[in-house]
Amino acid sequence: MAERIAGPEIEKLIQLLARLPGLGPRSARRAALHLIRKREELLYPLADAMLVARDKIKTCETCGNIDTLDPCTICRDSRRDPHMLVVVETVADLWALERAGIIAGRYHVLGGTLSPLDGVGPKELNVDTLVARLADGAVKEIILAVNATVDGQTTAHYITDLLTSTPVRITRLAHGVPVGGELDYLDEGTLAAAVRSRAPF
Ligand SMILES: [Zn+2]
User: Fold this and answer.
1) Phi/psi at 24 (nearest 5 deg)?
2) Fewest beta carbons within 10 Å, which of 13, 26, 94, 122?
3) pTM of the predicted structure, to 2 decimals
4) What is the pLDDT of residues 31-73, one digit of tens each?
5) Distance 15 CA to ligand 1 centre (A)
6) Within 10 Å of residue 154's Cβ, how many Cβ atoms?
7) Strands 169-172, 141-144: parallel, antiparallel or unpaired by DSSP?
């Protein structure tokens, strides 16, 4: 067992940092030390920002995005195309598409994919809210920007079947998206190409 080299408060900081994506115990230790060294410029503002985030973060009841506003900033943005809705699996995918700056419309976050083996059915996803959003007829096109995984494609088929009786045009990202690839890991050029050359589902 590794010996402790710091008091429990610092050990706790390291353990929590080690749970962040991309950080292992070693890099968490380095990050903790960096924060402690730069406490005026980094640790204090970071702690303050985390407290604010803890108190203010909400899930948008319209689209499932995470923001400090509900409806979220994107849902409120009146310059966005009301005819286009992009269906994504996760907030990370939404943020990836936003970073690429290629979506003129708004989003709908499913909160995952259908996965019968893991007990994830339509009720566990934001599917009902998607159907409800189509009720007023404003949305003309749905872009299924789900990942090219088996579960992602199963989910896309399910949604397509569900919406066959609606006049909404359903498209999906072009095949620039690698199989099993997660949108969040794609560069902006690849994402933009996948959206531009989207095809009917
Ligand atoms: Zn929203």
Assistant:
1) -100, -175
2) 26
3) 0.81
4) 999 999 999 999 999 999 999 999 999 999 999 999 999 999 9
5) 33
6) 15
7) parallel
